[in-house]
Amino acid sequence: GKADLGVLGLGTMGAMLALNFAEKGFDVALFNRTVEKAARLRDDTPDLAGRLHPQASLEDFVAGLATPRVIVLMVNAGTAVDDQIDALLPMLARGDIVIDAGNTDFNDTRARNARLEGTGIHFVGMGVSGGELGARHGPSIMVGGDEDVWARLRPLLEPISAKFDGSPCVAWLGTDGAGHFVKTIHNGIEYADMQMIAEIYGIMRDGLGLAPARMAEVFADWNTRGLASYLVEISAVVLAEADPETGAPLVDLIVDEAGQKGTGRWSAIEAQKLGVGATTLEAAVSARIISSQRGQRAEAATAFGSLALAGSDFSADAAGIAELESALETAKIIAYAQGYAILSAASAEFGWNLPLGEIARIWRAGCIIRSGFLRDIMTAYESGGEEANLLLNPAFARRVETGQAALRAVVAKAVLAGIPVPALSAALAYFDDYRRAHGTANLIQGQRDLFGAHTFKRLDRDGVFHHQWPAV
Ligand code: NDP
């Protein structure tokens, strides 16, 4: 018999996705550039070997698939995807579906959709979140492409996806690049969330002098309430871990340089292109960049010294810890509001009609930002929330109103102590800016009109004006 689908690219993610499909009862053809990997995957997984069909050539791989074919590409984003499409195209027929499941720039996905349009071969950009474990046991899956293809993919993807209360965390989100775009913004929100957690950790370490084991208890406790989430949960696990050799807290031995593979940066770039202020995502991307400049930071620390502990007004008593919790929760709401504002703008720009509540629904399990909080976002959109920004939704507005005092206090104390809180302060600044009916851009418009005759509008009259400013 022929295989139900094929997985091409058996690196970390592809191998795990293939095993996930096989476990759910699908026959999976396997192919990899380094050909031996396919047979090795089958041999290493005796319990699923009957449904894993390694192939020695791309021709055999394609020939081994039931038609119309479904091929999942899980190779590195970029030219590898184009190379595989080029190699596959001559062997495919009308109705076949090629899915790019990697972390691809949605602009590339749009271009590939355009390229394959009219060939009868469907191209689907699909975001997969949850890392290696997610791919193996149930990722959150964001599907783009033509809507009629979704009917065919649904029976394959629902079984392998994460489930939240039995509901599969996979959905078709819109045409062409919609799935990859939503995955990109997922990662941008993930960056902001991780950065804000790390800033709170920085306050606990440099402002309060808490031991990692104690911080682990605090995060584990927070994980039982409003902040309950995978990222807070794993923060507690990381902080509690001891180095097996020295017994020292492992977190103290890890070099403070964050890696990044691009999707967080793309989210900030796309936000800017769409004209959406996404300051927390931008702050998180910049913070990772600065983290990677470790040598320069050491030099600057010598030159300027760093403040902390001595000058800190933070308190480790119950009220002080509760203030940190409330600050993080409030900043998180603001970060997610920014992420959703990017999704709204893209939806309008690209004509996707993104189902915003549905996106929160499929993020509730499987992906890195899964959290109880996403249920609240889902509810906000599904109860008809038409607000331009989540912060204007009554339920979130109340929470931010209550929590803003804590966020303000935490940011103020951190600033005075010299503890950097770029994402938390960006969240607060955005909130203060967003809720200020009378801003300061009137001065900017005056400057622009003076140096470039860019004109301005007036509060007291309709129309567009240019003023004869005194010569400077
Ligand atoms: P790996 O590096 O583990 O695997 C890469 C795979 O791509 C290998 O099978 C490799 O083949 C193949 N490949 C690379 N270049 C080419 C090429 N030019 N032609 C053919 N095959 C090629 O990567 P991952 O599995 O981690 O990631 C795959 C994709 O999934 C990426 O887009 C990544 O961003 C995305 N992703 C990764 C996540 C993660 O947690 N790791 C989470 C979500 C998405 P070979 O064995 O021959 O080298």
From TrEMBL:
Single annotated GO MF? phosphogluconate dehydrogenase (decarboxylating) activity
> What does the record give as EC number?
1.1.1.44
Q: Which residues bind NADP(+)?
A: 9-14, 32-34, 75-77, 103
Q: Which reaction does it catalyse?
A: 6-phospho-D-gluconate + NADP(+) = D-ribulose 5-phosphate + CO2 + NADPH
Question: Which residue ranges does UniProt annotate as crossing the membrane?
Answer: none
Xref: InterPro entries: 6-PGluconate_DH-like_C_sf, 6PGD_dom2, 6PGDH_C, 6PGDH_Gnd/GntZ, 6PGDH_NADP-bd, 6PGdom_BS, NAD(P)-bd_dom_sf, Pgluconate_DH
Which keywords does the record carry? Gluconate utilization, NADP, Oxidoreductase, Pentose shunt
The broad enzyme category this protein falls into is oxidoreductase
Q: Where is the 6-phosphogluconate dehydrogenase C-terminal domain?
A: 179-470
Q: Which SMART domains match?
A: 6PGD
Q: Under which pathway is this protein filed?
A: Carbohydrate degradation; pentose phosphate pathway; D-ribulose 5-phosphate from D-glucose 6-phosphate (oxidative stage): step 3/3
What Gene3D superfamilies does the database record attribute to this sequence?
6-Phosphogluconate Dehydrogenase, domain 3 (1.20.5.320), N-(1-d-carboxylethyl)-l-norvaline Dehydrogenase, domain 2 (1.10.1040.10), NAD(P)-binding Rossmann-like Domain (3.40.50.720)
Entry function? Catalyzes the oxidative decarboxylation of 6-phosphogluconate to ribulose 5-phosphate and CO(2), with concomitant reduction of NADP to NADPH.
Family statement: Belongs to the 6-phosphogluconate dehydrogenase family.
Entry-linked PANTHER family? 6-PHOSPHOGLUCONATE DEHYDROGENASE
Q: Subunit info?
A: Homodimer.
Its protein name is: 6-phosphogluconate dehydrogenase, decarboxylating
* Originating organism: Pelagibacterium lacus
